[in-house]
Amino acid sequence: MNFDKIKKSIDKFRGSHHFKAISIVVSIIVTVLVLIAYNNGWLDRLELLSLDYRFKIRPALSCNPQIILIDMSEDSIEAIGRWPWPRSWHATMVSILKKYNIKMVTFDVLFSEKTNEEQDLPFATALKNADNVYLPYVFEGSKTLYPIEEFRENVKGLGHINIKPEHDGILRKVPLYIKKDGQLYPQIALQMMLDYLEADADSIEVIPGKYIKFYSTLRGWLTIPIDEDYQLIINWAGSWKKTFKHYSFIDIIVSYKQITDGLTPRIDLEKLKNKVCVIELTAIGLSDIKPTPIEPTYPAVGLHANIINNILQRN
Questions:
Q1: Is the N end or the C end of the chain the one with fewer CB atoms within 10 Å?
Q2: What tens digit of pLDDT does each residue of 61-71 get?
Q3: What is the distance between the alpha carbons of residues 248 and 70, in angstroms, rounded to a whole number?
């Protein structure tokens, strides 16, 4: 075979008008296909699928041992009764946690409506005495659902719990701030961490598309990456059941009663000391379940623990 002759023929063709025309047509087709893919979000979808795959093959993250979850799950519903519970139960929980020196508590429950003074007053009093409880609010269209005034005046802090899954329904990001009427409103887990890390309020710098930066008297300068919509890509620690320490709401109540009666408790409540606690409703049919890159049915309240973990672990 005469390779020199073949090479000369190829070189001749490359220099011809036909080859140039074909190159231009191919370039135009590729450009059009890329534009179509971009305009239809196919490239974004490919990137998201890649992100999800990397989460699935990555080992679970280490969870900060200071984070615990108190689940208001089926066992607690069965013992206490149908939801919503009388607020005296929440008052009792807050008082127990304060007695055992828990550092911070947040409820992922909206207390936006009054019930009656017999129930609301003990909870408000417990919040005031504890001075370490954070309560959420949520933006719904033009309205903001805040905790009732008696609770709002007695909490350590407030924060929003709005979430916005991606267009495919999967929860990958959370807005650490929401801008409304020219003001920035922090996500509740972020507000907790700003207080936990003793952030200098005057040092907090928020630049959309770049970062939230602040000076912590405990750890120096810290930076949290955010996108143009103030959103953090959640670095999920792992599956719901295999990450973080879970306690049952009713088990803590029963354990406290057992201790006061001189009996051996279900749970050693001394282990709660200095913990950062998220109290969340996880009973089937009552909790908000969302798909995440880690698993298809994940209680959305778990994102608070993951945000806290991301910030504390600087990961």
A1: N
A2: 889 999 999 99
A3: 6
CA distance 216 to 222: 7
Q: Which of 223, 243, 224, 244 is nearest to 234 (CA)?
A: 224
Which two tokens mark 302?
């778990």
| pLDDT value at residue 241 | 87
Closest-CA residue to 234 (of 126, 134, 311): 311
pLDDT tens digits, 111-121: 999 999 999 99
Task: Supply the pLDDT for residue 207.
Answer: 97
Angle at which helices 17-39 and 42-57 pack, to 10 degrees?
A: 70
What is the predicted pLDDT for the residue at 37?
47
Element (H, E) at 91: helix 87-99
Cβ-count burial 243-277 (b if 16+ within 10 Å, e if not):
bbeebbbbbbbbbbeebeeeeebbbebeebeebbb
Distance CA 9, CA 211 (A): 57
Query: Which residues lie below 8 Å from residue 230, measured CB to CB, with a gap of 6+?
Result: 175, 176, 177, 178, 179, 184, 206, 208
pTM over 0.70? The answer is yes
Q: Which residues of the chain have pLDDT under 50?
A: 13, 19, 33-34, 37-38, 42
Other CB atoms within a 10 A radius of the CB of residue 66 amount to 16
**CA-to-CA distance for 38 and 53, rounded, in angstroms?**
21
Write down the pLDDT at residue 89.
Answer: 97
Whether residue 100 contacts residue 278, with contact meaning beta carbons closer than 8 Å, is answered with no
CA distance 211 to 206: 6
Best CA proximity match to 135, nearest among 107, 112, 163, 102: 107
